[in-house]
TrEMBL record, chain A:
<dbReference type="InterPro" id="IPR028082">
    <property type="entry name" value="Peripla_BP_I"/>
</dbReference>
<dbReference type="Pfam" id="PF13407">
    <property type="entry name" value="Peripla_BP_4"/>
</dbReference>
<comment type="similarity">
    <text>Belongs to the bacterial solute-binding protein 2 family.</text>
</comment>
<protein>
    <submittedName>
        <fullName>Monosaccharide ABC transporter substrate-binding protein (CUT2 family)</fullName>
    </submittedName>
</protein>
<dbReference type="InterPro" id="IPR025997">
    <property type="entry name" value="SBP_2_dom"/>
</dbReference>
<feature type="signal peptide">
    <location>
        <begin position="1"/>
        <end position="25"/>
    </location>
</feature>
<keyword id="KW-0732">Signal</keyword>
<dbReference type="InterPro" id="IPR050555">
    <property type="entry name" value="Bact_Solute-Bind_Prot2"/>
</dbReference>
<feature type="domain" description="Periplasmic binding protein">
    <location>
        <begin position="35"/>
        <end position="284"/>
    </location>
</feature>
<dbReference type="GO" id="GO:0030288">
    <property type="term" value="C:outer membrane-bounded periplasmic space"/>
</dbReference>
<dbReference type="GO" id="GO:0030246">
    <property type="term" value="F:carbohydrate binding"/>
</dbReference>
Length: 312, 577
């Protein structure tokens, strides 16, 4: 009996000791997904918020984002080089906001060759073959035109200041504006000034346009940065301006009624959903080819509510 | 280990030793694992930070390089030089490259190669440009970097010094017109990312490029030693890709490996496990101290508990010993209320019972002795009387008084039987002989004839019965039963063995006894009687009870035709029975 008890105690002690001897081989987490991102630009508030959204989503889903962007939204060559470099680095997914949406860049061919999925965000490719995550830009243009028309009592001339027409987002916004204005008999588009993708329009240029088109009472600007440049100019006084993109100074301008309307395209949301989409693509969980994000239309009346909702 | 106390002590100590040792071992092993895990986690964190910082720097370098490679001014200068081939243009290119060089401290220099012209322009102070670069070297560079994402270890085209890390980007202007290299010095990488990691615990530390070529190391190892280390690393982390972080542990070493997601540079280091677990030496002593203290405390407690448990046992053992030595009055002390306490109380109760039984036994024995002594006390027949009576008997024979001589002989025999010391038991035939002598003497005394019939079975004649058990009954029959004067007195004495029982019957034809008389006779106390042997019926009754208890019976049946006395007792042929 005594021997049996002693034996049992010894076996128990041995088991306890063995149980405590955990293997020292450390288990490593699986390799994280690397998502290469090429933006149009990195140093405006909109693109910074896109990046923030991407980093937040990546942190949440254990992804790694390699974020690159040329210095300006016009530098298509640099963007292609950066995208090519990421393809050569065999990223798991490449997300691009193409500066040149018309010509098929070399990196798309390289990506196809290597089997690397490519998605577009913020701005689509013209071909429509590549998945797109962002707002409906044509709808945004339509909304901007409709709101401007309403403020002008559906009468008179308007002008459009847009980004490069090689960029689908700007092209589609312009198309949306045109589509609406065509429905209003008392209104017409007097001019379309392109090439202002995130660039500010000079005071001289504003002055020139006011002089050349004195009947223009409203302006649709397809980039918030450009719109900010215009309202800074004294020549813009009296012009009713609507624009797009959520950024702090534009919201401030809206509150101060320097602009009359804004399509609240949230860079953060686009960035966040792009990474989620990329991850879903890699894990085979994508349900729809494109992800269209809704964008509210803000005016001085509802901007406070929007801010309250999004700063909680 | 015969003592319960030592068994209890050893058991408690054994349990304490096993438990304390087990817990100590578990804690030690857990602590060692925790220290190692913490070290690994901390190192991984540090490595991750280093590799991320390096990767960030590489991204910035690459960004500047891409920007420069797209610079229209540089493209224009290349075009200009290709057309005019003036050194002035090259000097202007140097200025442009230097402005980009200043953008990032990680970039040690920019090299612009114009393959068609075999010219290399630098951002360095000297040489600013080199005009005759071997076409072969340029082709080798192009081949090496084509379709490769940098940074790569490349040979310096100017000095031919040891390879340095560089990104290469083509400059496109209606075709590739040049190649721009952003160079990063090995010393920059060493001082910014490796030197801080050199400490006593780290055995090897290396920074490698994407092809696992060593960029820089934490020591001076070169050649085969370095190749061997790289092979070890490749063997251990062959499945680890870009952006991965891995750890491998063998008996002696912990290997850390981190590969950057963008530059795909790898940081590899190995650490001596013994050094990592150096802190455990102190911990080991600490645990040993705790173990020893625990064991001392356990010993003291075990001793106290063993004493506590053993005290009632010892008390009981001591009591049993005293009792076994004859001290029946000793009682165990009831110390506790547990099973041992119950045992002590029950033991005491048992002793009380034994003592009572012994007292009763002694009392019975005393009474038996008293009865025997009483029977003997009154048989004062000194030896002198035998001799004298024998002399008288022989004198009577000489004078021809045969009858008188027989009477005297009967008397002598009766006396001898009554005072004999031969034992407490006689056979039935011996008792009958005594009866015959007695009856003869009574006949002589009363000058009459008492008819006595003996009907003794042969099986019964050898049965042992207590001495003088029948005589008082016959005496009672003669003195109080039959009427001697009438001369028709009859006494029938029979003895049979029925089974294991001896049945003796003494029957007379006397006047009989009333029931009251019988009850009085049977229940009266032993006292001196006036009979021959001074042994009365109560004495017979008591002796039967003392010798045989309930196995014996003395019964009186009487009516006006006489009295029958029945004695039943076990048929015994040996006194031991």
């Amino acid at each position: 009996m005594g021997k049996r008890i002693t034996g049992s105690i010894l076996i128990l002690a041995l088991l306890l000791t063995l149980c405590s001897c955990k293997s020292t081989q450390t288990e490593m987490p699986p390799r994280e997904l690397i998502i290469g991102v090429v933006a149009k630009c990195a140093n405006t508030e909109y693109w910074m918020s896109v990046r923030s959204g991407m980093e937040a989503a990546a942190k949440k889903s254990d992804c790694r984002v390699l974020f690159f962007a040329p210095n300006s939204e016009e530098d298509a060559e640099a963007q292609e080089k950066l995208a090519s470099s990421l393809i050569r680095r065999r990223v798991d997914v490449l997300a691009v906001s193409p500066i040149d949406a018309v010509n098929e860049p070399a990196y798309l061919r390289e990506a196809r060759k290597l089997g690397i999925p490519v998605i577009s965000y913020d701005s689509a490719f013209e071909s429509g073959e590549i998945a797109y995550i962002g707002i409906d830009n044509q709808l945004a243009g339509y909304q901007m035109a409709a709101n401007l028309a309403k403020r002008l009592d559906y009468q008179g001339e308007i002008g459009i200041v847009s980004g490069e027409q090689d960029q689908m987002c700007h092209r589609e916004r312009v198309e949306g504006i045109k589509r609406y204005i065509e429905t209003v008999p008392g209104m017409k588009i007097s001019y379309i000034e392109s090439g202002y993708s995130g660039a500010k329009m000079s005071g001289e240029k504003v002055s020139e346009l006011r002089r050349d088109y004195p009947g223009v009472k409203g302006l649709v600007v397809t980039s918030a940065v450009t719109a900010l440049g215009i309202i800074e100019s004294s020549e813009a006084a009296g012009l009713r301006i609507v624009t797009i993109d959520v950024q702090e100074d534009v919201l401030y301008a809206l509150k101060n009624k320097q602009i009359i309307g804004l399509v609240a395209q949230s860079g953060y949301d686009i960035g966040y959903k792009t990474i989620n989409y990329a991850r879903a693509l890699k894990t085979g969980q994508v349900k729809e080819k494109n992800v269209i994000i809704e964008a509210e239309f803000l005016t001085a009346e509802n901007v406070e509510d929007y801010l309250e909702k999004h700063t909680q | 280990m015969r003592s319960i106390r030592s068994k209890v002590l050893v058991s408690i100590l054994l349990i304490a030793v096993i438990t304390a040792s087990g817990i100590t071992v578990i804690f030690y092993v857990k602590s060692a694992a925790t220290i190692e895990e913490n070290y690994i986690a901390s190192n991984q964190q540090q490595n991750r930070q280093i590799i991320e910082s390096l990767d960030q720097a590489m991204q910035e370098v690459y960004h500047v390089l891409v920007e420069a490679s797209c610079d229209e001014a540089i493209k224009a200068k290349i075009k200009e030089y290709t057309t005019e081939k003036e050194d002035k243009t090259l000097a202007e290119m140097v200025g442009l490259l230097q402005s980009y060089n200043e953008r990032d401290t990680a970039i040690s220099s920019f090299h612009l190669i114009i393959p068609d012209e075999q010219v290399l322009v630098t951002s360095e102070a000297y040489p600013k440009y080199k005009k005759v670069i071997e076409r072969r070297s340029i082709q080798a560079l192009i081949k090496e970097t084509e379709n490769q994402a940098g940074p790569l270890l490349l040979n310096n085209l100017i000095s031919g010094r040891r390879p340095h890390l560089a990104f290469v980007e083509p400059i496109n202007d209606n075709g590739t017109v040049g190649y721009l290299c952003a160079n990063i010095e090995e010393r920059y990488l060493y001082y910014n990312y490796i030197s801080e990691m050199r400490n006593d615990t780290i055995k090897e530390v290396m920074l490698l490029d994407q092809k696992n070529e060593v960029i820089t190391t934490g020591d001076d190892r070169q050649g085969e030693a370095l190749t061997k280390t790289v092979k070890v690393m490749e063997g251990k982390f062959k499945d680890s890709g870009a952006g991965s972080q891995d750890v491998s542990i063998d008996e002696e070493t912990i290997y850390f490996y981190s590969r950057a997601p963008f530059s795909r540079c790898a940081l590899y280091l190995s650490v001596d496990r013994e050094t990592v677990l150096g802190d455990l030496t102190e911990l080991r002593l600490y645990y040993a101290g705790i173990l020893v203290i625990s064991l001392i405390v356990a010993s003291i407690l075990a001793s106290y508990l063993a004493r506590l448990i053993y005290r009632p046992v010892q008390n009981l053992t001591s009591t049993v010993k005293h009792v076994s030595e004859g001290e029946l009055s000793t009682r165990a002390q009831v110390i506790s209320r547990d099973e041992m306490g119950d045992l002590a109380a029950e033991f005491n109760q048992m002793l009380n019972q034994i003592e009572l039984l012994i007292k009763e036994l002694i009392e019975k024995e005393r009474l038996k002795k008293d009865a025997e002594l009483e029977a003997l006390q009154y048989q004062v027949t000194p030896h002198f009387m035998y001799n004298t009576l024998n002399s008288i008997k022989y004198a009577a024979l000489i004078k021809g008084e045969r009858e008188l001589a027989d009477l005297i002989e009967s008397f002598v025999e009766l006396l001898q039987a009554s005072i004999s010391k031969k034992g407490a038991f006689l056979t039935v035939s011996e008792e009958v002989h005594i009866l015959q002598n007695y009856v003869r003497l009574q006949e002589f005394r009363s000058n009459t004839t008492i008819k006595t019939v003996y009907n003794i079975e042969p099986a019964a004649s050898n049965c042992l019965i207590p001495r003088l058990i029948l005589q008082p009954i016959v005496e009672n029959a003669i003195l109080h039963g039959i009427d001697i004067k009438k001369g028709n007195g009859l006494i029938l004495i029979s003895a049979v063995v029925s089974g294991e029982r001896l049945e003796i019957e003494i029957k007379d034809n006397g006047r009989g006894m009333s029931k009251e008389q019988i009850r009085t006779l049977l229940n009266s106390k032993v006292k001196k009687t006036k009979g021959f042997t001074a042994v009365g019926i109560p004495n017979v009754r008591d002796r039967l009870e003392l010798y045989y208890g309930e196995k014996s019976q003395l019964r009186y049946v009487s009516d006006d035709r006489g009295t029958t006395v029945m004695i039943y007792l076990p048929a015994a042929y040996d006194e031991k029975e």
